[in-house]
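User: Hey, quick favor. My workstation is busy. Could you predict this chain's structure for me?
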Amino acid sequence: MATLHSAPRFTQIDGLKNTISAALGDHLVEAHEEHGELLVHVQRGSIESVLRTLRDDFEYQQLMEIAGVDYPSRDERFEVVYMLLSVTTNNRIMVKCRASEDTPVPTVTTLWPNAGWLEREVFDMYGVLFDGNTDLRRILTDYGFEGHPFRKDFPLTGYVELRYSEDEKRVVYEPVKLAQDLRQFDFMSPWEGADYVLPGDEKADMPPIDDPKTTESPKQTGAGAKADEKAAEKVSADAPAEKDGGADAPPPEPTEDRPKRKKRVGKTTDTAKATKPKKGAN
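Assistant: No problem, here it is.
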Protein backbone atom coordinates (compact mmCIF):
# COMPACT_ATOMS: atom_id res chain seq x y z
CA MET A 1 0.00 0.00 0.00
CA ALA A 2 1.42 3.36 -1.01
CA THR A 3 2.06 5.89 1.74
CA LEU A 4 1.05 9.48 1.10
CA HIS A 5 3.09 12.31 2.58
CA SER A 6 1.88 15.86 2.93
CA ALA A 7 5.35 17.26 2.18
CA PRO A 8 6.75 16.81 -1.34
CA ARG A 9 9.93 14.81 -1.75
CA PHE A 10 11.58 17.48 -3.88
CA THR A 11 10.84 21.18 -3.54
CA GLN A 12 11.07 23.63 -6.39
CA ILE A 13 12.34 27.08 -5.39
CA ASP A 14 11.68 28.69 -8.75
CA GLY A 15 10.13 32.09 -8.12
CA LEU A 16 10.65 31.86 -4.34
CA LYS A 17 13.44 34.43 -4.41
CA ASN A 18 11.25 37.12 -6.00
CA THR A 19 8.32 36.35 -3.72
CA ILE A 20 10.31 36.56 -0.50
CA SER A 21 12.25 39.60 -1.68
CA ALA A 22 9.01 41.45 -2.31
CA ALA A 23 7.66 40.48 1.10
CA LEU A 24 10.75 41.62 2.99
CA GLY A 25 11.00 44.96 1.24
CA ASP A 26 13.54 47.37 2.76
CA HIS A 27 14.69 44.77 5.30
CA LEU A 28 16.41 42.85 2.50
CA VAL A 29 20.04 43.50 1.60
CA GLU A 30 20.65 40.66 -0.88
CA ALA A 31 19.10 37.36 -1.91
CA HIS A 32 20.53 34.59 -4.09
CA GLU A 33 20.44 30.81 -4.52
CA GLU A 34 23.24 28.46 -3.42
CA HIS A 35 23.24 24.65 -3.70
CA GLY A 36 19.52 24.50 -4.36
CA GLU A 37 18.62 26.66 -1.35
CA LEU A 38 17.72 30.30 -0.94
CA LEU A 39 20.10 32.55 1.02
CA VAL A 40 18.79 35.89 2.27
CA HIS A 41 20.94 38.68 3.74
CA VAL A 42 18.93 41.18 5.81
CA GLN A 43 19.46 44.22 8.02
CA ARG A 44 20.66 43.42 11.54
CA GLY A 45 17.97 45.38 13.31
CA SER A 46 15.23 43.71 11.25
CA ILE A 47 16.19 40.09 11.93
CA GLU A 48 13.32 39.45 14.34
CA SER A 49 10.70 40.88 11.97
CA VAL A 50 12.13 39.02 8.97
CA LEU A 51 12.11 35.65 10.74
CA ARG A 52 8.58 36.25 12.00
CA THR A 53 7.44 36.89 8.44
CA LEU A 54 9.14 33.73 7.17
CA ARG A 55 7.59 31.68 9.97
CA ASP A 56 4.03 32.98 9.71
CA ASP A 57 3.63 33.82 6.00
CA PHE A 58 5.98 31.27 4.32
CA GLU A 59 5.56 28.30 6.70
CA TYR A 60 9.17 28.04 7.91
CA GLN A 61 8.10 26.58 11.23
CA GLN A 62 11.37 25.30 12.67
CA LEU A 63 14.60 27.06 13.63
CA MET A 64 17.19 24.33 13.02
CA GLU A 65 20.45 26.16 13.82
CA ILE A 66 22.13 29.47 14.51
CA ALA A 67 25.78 29.65 13.42
CA GLY A 68 28.47 32.29 13.38
CA VAL A 69 31.17 33.21 10.85
CA ASP A 70 34.19 35.45 11.45
CA TYR A 71 35.70 37.76 8.80
CA PRO A 72 38.37 39.79 10.68
CA SER A 73 39.10 42.07 7.71
CA ARG A 74 35.55 43.47 7.65
CA ASP A 75 34.31 46.40 9.72
CA GLU A 76 31.45 44.21 10.91
CA ARG A 77 33.48 41.05 11.22
CA PHE A 78 30.74 38.59 12.27
CA GLU A 79 27.89 37.01 10.34
CA VAL A 80 25.03 35.34 12.20
CA VAL A 81 23.33 32.65 10.10
CA TYR A 82 19.80 31.39 10.85
CA MET A 83 18.78 28.10 9.24
CA LEU A 84 15.03 27.54 8.90
CA LEU A 85 13.05 24.48 7.80
CA SER A 86 9.56 24.32 6.34
CA VAL A 87 7.95 21.03 7.32
CA THR A 88 4.99 21.45 4.98
CA THR A 89 6.99 22.30 1.83
CA ASN A 90 10.19 20.36 2.71
CA ASN A 91 12.25 23.47 2.01
CA ARG A 92 15.15 25.14 3.80
CA ILE A 93 16.26 28.76 3.83
CA MET A 94 19.26 30.58 5.33
CA VAL A 95 19.04 34.10 6.68
CA LYS A 96 22.16 36.17 7.42
CA CYS A 97 22.93 39.43 9.18
CA ARG A 98 26.19 41.15 10.06
CA ALA A 99 27.40 42.32 13.46
CA SER A 100 30.49 43.53 15.29
CA GLU A 101 31.75 43.15 18.83
CA ASP A 102 29.83 46.25 19.98
CA THR A 103 26.63 45.94 17.90
CA PRO A 104 24.18 43.45 19.44
CA VAL A 105 21.78 41.39 17.36
CA PRO A 106 18.08 41.34 18.37
CA THR A 107 17.15 38.05 20.00
CA VAL A 108 14.69 35.65 18.39
CA THR A 109 13.75 33.86 21.60
CA THR A 110 10.36 35.54 21.18
CA LEU A 111 9.80 33.33 18.11
CA TRP A 112 11.49 30.04 19.06
CA PRO A 113 12.39 29.12 22.65
CA ASN A 114 15.32 26.96 21.51
CA ALA A 115 17.00 30.10 20.16
CA GLY A 116 18.18 30.86 23.70
CA TRP A 117 20.62 27.94 23.69
CA LEU A 118 21.74 28.60 20.11
CA GLU A 119 22.39 32.29 20.79
CA ARG A 120 24.41 31.37 23.87
CA GLU A 121 26.59 29.12 21.72
CA VAL A 122 27.31 31.89 19.20
CA PHE A 123 28.03 34.28 22.06
CA ASP A 124 30.41 31.80 23.68
CA MET A 125 32.33 30.92 20.51
CA TYR A 126 32.38 34.33 18.76
CA GLY A 127 31.45 36.94 21.35
CA VAL A 128 28.36 38.18 19.46
CA LEU A 129 25.88 39.90 21.79
CA PHE A 130 22.11 39.27 21.52
CA ASP A 131 19.88 42.04 22.74
CA GLY A 132 16.89 40.74 24.69
CA ASN A 133 18.36 37.35 25.65
CA THR A 134 17.80 37.19 29.41
CA ASP A 135 20.22 34.28 29.95
CA LEU A 136 23.23 35.12 27.78
CA ARG A 137 25.92 33.00 29.47
CA ARG A 138 28.70 30.75 28.25
CA ILE A 139 27.50 27.29 27.35
CA LEU A 140 30.47 25.32 25.92
CA THR A 141 33.48 26.79 27.72
CA ASP A 142 33.95 26.90 31.48
CA TYR A 143 33.22 29.77 33.84
CA GLY A 144 36.04 32.29 33.86
CA PHE A 145 37.23 31.30 30.36
CA GLU A 146 38.95 34.15 28.54
CA GLY A 147 38.38 34.86 24.86
CA HIS A 148 36.18 33.27 22.20
CA PRO A 149 37.66 30.11 20.58
CA PHE A 150 36.06 30.39 17.11
CA ARG A 151 37.48 33.82 16.35
CA LYS A 152 40.17 33.76 13.68
CA ASP A 153 42.59 35.70 15.91
CA PHE A 154 42.21 33.33 18.85
CA PRO A 155 45.53 31.51 19.52
CA LEU A 156 45.62 27.84 18.69
CA THR A 157 46.91 26.91 22.12
CA GLY A 158 44.47 29.06 24.07
CA TYR A 159 45.35 30.99 27.19
CA VAL A 160 44.67 28.84 30.24
CA GLU A 161 43.69 25.26 30.92
CA LEU A 162 41.47 23.81 33.59
CA ARG A 163 42.42 20.89 35.84
CA TYR A 164 41.75 19.52 39.30
CA SER A 165 44.63 19.92 41.76
CA GLU A 166 45.11 17.06 44.20
CA ASP A 167 47.35 19.26 46.35
CA GLU A 168 44.89 22.13 46.67
CA LYS A 169 41.76 19.92 46.43
CA ARG A 170 40.07 22.31 44.00
CA VAL A 171 39.83 23.28 40.34
CA VAL A 172 42.71 25.53 39.22
CA TYR A 173 43.53 27.46 36.06
CA GLU A 174 47.05 27.38 34.63
CA PRO A 175 48.70 28.64 31.42
CA VAL A 176 48.57 26.12 28.61
CA LYS A 177 51.69 23.96 28.35
CA LEU A 178 52.18 21.73 25.32
CA ALA A 179 54.40 18.70 25.59
CA GLN A 180 54.91 18.75 21.82
CA ASP A 181 55.11 21.63 19.38
CA LEU A 182 52.32 22.02 16.88
CA ARG A 183 53.03 19.96 13.80
CA GLN A 184 52.79 21.64 10.42
CA PHE A 185 51.93 19.56 7.35
CA ASP A 186 52.66 20.92 3.88
CA PHE A 187 51.44 17.85 1.91
CA MET A 188 54.23 18.30 -0.64
CA SER A 189 55.23 15.25 -2.63
CA PRO A 190 58.94 14.33 -2.38
CA TRP A 191 58.77 12.87 -5.90
CA GLU A 192 57.64 16.17 -7.40
CA GLY A 193 60.24 18.12 -5.45
CA ALA A 194 59.90 19.95 -2.17
CA ASP A 195 61.05 23.43 -1.19
CA TYR A 196 63.01 22.06 1.76
CA VAL A 197 65.69 19.42 2.25
CA LEU A 198 64.21 16.02 2.98
CA PRO A 199 65.77 13.85 5.71
CA GLY A 200 68.84 12.16 4.26
CA ASP A 201 69.17 14.52 1.29
CA GLU A 202 71.63 16.69 3.16
CA LYS A 203 74.29 14.08 2.32
CA ALA A 204 73.96 14.86 -1.39
CA ASP A 205 75.49 18.30 -0.88
CA MET A 206 78.64 16.97 0.78
CA PRO A 207 81.95 17.56 -1.08
CA PRO A 208 83.18 14.57 -3.14
CA ILE A 209 85.49 12.07 -1.48
CA ASP A 210 89.23 12.50 -2.25
CA ASP A 211 90.47 10.48 -5.19
CA PRO A 212 92.19 7.24 -4.16
CA LYS A 213 96.00 7.35 -4.13
CA THR A 214 97.83 5.44 -6.88
CA THR A 215 101.46 4.27 -7.12
CA GLU A 216 103.42 5.40 -10.15
CA SER A 217 106.42 3.01 -9.68
CA PRO A 218 107.19 -0.29 -7.81
CA LYS A 219 109.47 1.63 -5.44
CA GLN A 220 106.42 3.34 -3.88
CA THR A 221 104.90 -0.04 -2.95
CA GLY A 222 108.16 -1.76 -1.92
CA ALA A 223 107.89 -4.35 -4.72
CA GLY A 224 110.92 -5.66 -6.65
CA ALA A 225 113.44 -8.55 -6.92
CA LYS A 226 114.60 -8.24 -3.32
CA ALA A 227 111.02 -8.31 -2.05
CA ASP A 228 110.30 -11.41 -4.15
CA GLU A 229 113.33 -13.25 -2.79
CA LYS A 230 112.39 -12.34 0.76
CA ALA A 231 108.88 -13.60 0.21
CA ALA A 232 110.20 -16.94 -1.15
CA GLU A 233 112.11 -17.70 2.05
CA LYS A 234 110.49 -20.15 4.44
CA VAL A 235 109.44 -18.63 7.68
CA SER A 236 109.88 -21.99 9.50
CA ALA A 237 113.48 -22.60 8.39
CA ASP A 238 115.65 -24.30 11.07
CA ALA A 239 112.53 -25.05 13.14
CA PRO A 240 112.38 -28.44 14.96
CA ALA A 241 109.52 -29.54 12.75
CA GLU A 242 111.57 -28.89 9.62
CA LYS A 243 114.59 -30.82 10.95
CA ASP A 244 112.80 -33.92 12.31
CA GLY A 245 109.96 -34.19 9.81
CA GLY A 246 109.80 -35.29 6.21
CA ALA A 247 109.35 -38.51 4.24
CA ASP A 248 112.90 -39.80 4.99
CA ALA A 249 112.61 -39.25 8.72
CA PRO A 250 112.88 -42.41 10.91
CA PRO A 251 109.75 -43.59 12.75
CA PRO A 252 109.30 -42.30 16.26
CA GLU A 253 110.62 -44.38 19.12
CA PRO A 254 108.09 -46.09 21.39
CA THR A 255 107.26 -44.17 24.53
CA GLU A 256 107.27 -47.30 26.71
CA ASP A 257 108.62 -50.88 26.57
CA ARG A 258 105.83 -53.48 26.43
CA PRO A 259 106.39 -57.25 26.28
CA LYS A 260 105.11 -59.02 23.26
CA ARG A 261 101.82 -60.86 23.84
CA LYS A 262 100.17 -63.62 21.91
CA LYS A 263 97.48 -62.67 19.50
CA ARG A 264 93.99 -63.29 20.81
CA VAL A 265 91.80 -65.83 19.12
CA GLY A 266 88.19 -64.86 18.59
CA LYS A 267 86.31 -62.13 20.41
CA THR A 268 85.93 -61.90 24.10
CA THR A 269 82.34 -60.72 23.69
CA ASP A 270 81.41 -64.07 22.16
CA THR A 271 82.44 -66.06 25.20
CA ALA A 272 80.22 -66.76 28.16
CA LYS A 273 83.07 -66.02 30.56
CA ALA A 274 83.21 -62.50 29.34
CA THR A 275 79.66 -61.79 30.51
CA LYS A 276 79.50 -63.98 33.58
CA PRO A 277 80.58 -62.33 36.82
CA LYS A 278 83.37 -63.84 38.80
CA LYS A 279 82.65 -65.73 41.95
CA GLY A 280 83.03 -63.80 45.08
CA ALA A 281 82.85 -60.51 43.23
CA ASN A 282 80.77 -57.90 44.98
